[in-house]
Amino acid sequence: MIGHSLGAQLAAMVAQSSDHTPDGIVAVGASVPAVRHYGLRGVALSAIAGAVTPVSAIVGHWPRPGFGGPAARTLMRQWARMVLTGQAPFAVDRSIQTPTLAIRLDGDEIVTDGAASAFDAAFAPEAISHWRYDDGHCPAGGNTTHVGWVRTPDTVAQRIAEWWDSQATVGPAAIESGTRHRPG
Question: Which domain of life is it from (predicted)?
Answer without folding.
Answer: Bacteria
